[in-house]
Amino acid sequence: MTTQLSRRNILAGALGLGVMITTAACGGDSDSGSDTAGAGYTEPSADLKAKLTYGVWDQTQVDAIQKNIDAFNQKYPGIEVAISVTPFAQYWTKLQTQASSDTLPDLFWMNGPNFQLYAGGKKIDPITGPVKAGAIDPANYPEALTSLYSLDGVQYGVPKDMDTIGVWINTEIFKKAKVDVPTADWTWDDFQTAATAISTALKSDGIYGGAGGMDGQTTYYNTIFEAGGSVVADGKSGYNTPQSQAGLQFWADLIASGGSPTIAQLTDTTADQWFTSGKLGMYWGGSWFRAALAGTDLEKSIQALPLPKGAQQATVIHGVANLVAANSQNKQAAHALQAYLVSQEAQQALGEAGSVIPAFTGTQAAFTKSMPDAGLQVFLDAVEYAKPLPVSANTAAWNAFETKLLPDAFSGSKPVADVTADLASQMDAALAKE
Amino acid sequence: MSSVTSPPRGAAPATTVRKRGLRRDGFWPWLFVAPLVGGVAVFFLWPIVQTAWFSLTEFGVFGGTTFTGLDNYKTLFQNGDLYKSIGNTLIYTVITLFNVPIAVVVASLLNTPGLRGAAVYRVLYFLPYVAMPTAVAMVWRIIFNGDFGVLNYVLGWFGIDGPYWISTPGAAIVAVSIVGLWSLIGFSVIVLGAGLKQIPPDLYEAAELDGASRLRQFRSITVPLLTPSIAFLSIVSVIQGFQMFDLLYAVLGTTNMNPTVFDSMSIVYLFYQAGFVTNEKGMAAAIAMVVLVLVALATVVQFRLQKKWVHLD
């Protein structure tokens, strides 16, 4: 009898455990996002006590961020901030899991391609309150960039840093190939001519003039914008238009003329690697590429130029924003930190630390001074005509189609128009699912 | 579990004995197996049930499911990607299976009586298995590089113009399979080495007296008596082959950077792409169910076939 009883107890215990697990698993489904939050923000008093976690993905920026936080703590000694670094490759998987279980860090980094997914899923607390209270003024940041972090007329954050695209030039290679270094008012034709001339002259050294690649942000998005086309507009693909096709044809022509390595070559060795190993004359790259050049032997022969002009001048702008989680227990403190990190004072300090360009207009001088002879000002001037990185609610879904289909257009194995028709219809199907 | 509670074979009225046995032992046997059974139930069985359910739904990015019946499976089976990925998985599995015959030869060579430095060789063969897979993949990426890689450089000596291994459709999956094959040999050599030690030396002595050549001894003694180890290794290789993902991901890179990945996807990579890149988690669950069924089928078939050729004494 006694053993029977104990068995029953065990069974009951096991059942209880099972129930616990099931309820724990279901806990994630409950909707705990509140819509009104963020609207009623007031600046916290200096003695507010709170513990915040701050999720970021770039270890190289942690020192600069810690300095920002130390300064923040002089005003709010009671707010403890713990920085949690997750490498970029795992950051998004982790963030999605945290969002599903409403355990997001109080404040966390967000990029353009992922923003709408989280804003649409009501996982982010808007900055409506802080803006109303005067703690954040979106007008202080590049407009194309703040627009990345608004959805349906609601602003969820402002960028803390920014990057634009330009052309990095190795003047040594131009000298060797006896080609004149282009000037800032150059056009697509000038670029193509210089690229082919260098590739032809230095063929025996395995040196190329220009390089395409599969990274839209640094290559074909820019030419699509410069041709007057679009990637995604009003929930539809913009690829199947003459303008966008012209933007893609630019790269097909460059590869066909031998001005650039092939896509296969660029997959094995990416364009930035060709450039840093001294085998590429002109590299379309982001302002962040400065970090890879500073302090190297290449540095003294580097010059930055704006992108060559197509039908119009354009460049892609992007930047990371700090966002407050909708599930945060300390929204007031989190918004206070969010506001401080994008304040002029903090942005100035971030810029001087040197790893990124701060987004606050007028705090970027430190960036241009880091390589004074390279003309880095072009990356800041580009803000004027910059367009935001194309994104939608589920950006990754159609990004996959781009990588899958566009190589055929670049290699010339299929006419650009055929590829864009196919890409646009697949992309539209993915966009319709959003 | 059965070894604890079942009575010795041939004992009279089995059912009553079992009942009495259970009652006599009480809950103790259950307590002892609880950690294992509990773990398997919570971490394997329950997720399988959940995945099966999710595969019938459209799964929101942050949770929340909508029942869609067999829609995911319909889309999946109409989509060419599934068949391509199964094809790639089979190519990989077949190529990596060759690690077993290669390892049989290597292991018996290492077992040659009087071989000097056998331990050193064994360590050398085993090294790839203990090395960090990502680090290994990084090195192979460099070796396979089309313009600057060692492999094409060496091929150049023989007048062969090697392809862009990791960025040419068709070549990429073969390149990844070669890495897989290479990294498995060490483990197989160790397992087979242990199997070789089990073979009584007098068998070889007798064979030698009868005038059997070394080759004949290998064919008629070594291989048949190694079949249990060979069977074990083939089953493990096939299961690993069907689950291959990390190597492909690390050697070829992600779909953002390398267009060839789409042509070289294994079935688990297809699952990863759907689940974590394009956020179609319901579809990913359906793919996971297909993988489960395929692995189960392959394993059942192997166990059946095994009875025909494995030498058990």
UniProtKB/TrEMBL annotation, chain A:
Protein name (database record): Sugar ABC transporter substrate-binding protein
Signal peptide (from-to): 1-24
Domain of life: Bacteria
Keywords per UniProt: Signal, Transport
Localization (cell): Cell envelope
Family as reported in the entry's similarity comment: Belongs to the bacterial solute-binding protein 1 family.
InterPro entries for this protein: Bact_solute-bd_prot1, SBP, TAT_signal
Lineage of the species this protein comes from: Bacteria, Bacillati, Actinomycetota, Actinomycetes, Kineosporiales
Keyword Chloroplast on entry: no
PANTHER family: ARABINOSE-BINDING PROTEIN-RELATED, SN-GLYCEROL-3-PHOSPHATE-BINDING PERIPLASMIC PROTEIN UGPB
One Pfam family this sequence matches: SBP_bac_1
The keyword Transit peptide belongs to this UniProt entry's keyword annotation: no
From TrEMBL, chain B:
Membrane-topology descriptor: Multi-pass membrane protein
Subcellular location, record wording: Cell membrane
Transmembrane segments: 27-49, 90-111, 123-144, 164-192, 223-242, 248-272, 284-305
CDD domains xrefs: TM_PBP2
Positions of the ABC transmembrane type-1 domain: 85-302
UniProt cross-references to Pfam families, sorted A to Z: BPD_transp_1
Keyword tRNA processing: no
UniProt-listed InterPro entries: ABC_transporter_permease, MetI-like, MetI-like_sf
The entry's keywords: Cell membrane, Membrane, Transmembrane, Transmembrane helix, Transport
Keyword Cell membrane: yes
Major localization listed first in the record, in broad terms: membrane
Family: Belongs to the binding-protein-dependent transport system permease family.
Protein name per Swiss-Prot or TrEMBL: Sugar ABC transporter permease
Native source organism of the sequence: Kineosporia mesophila
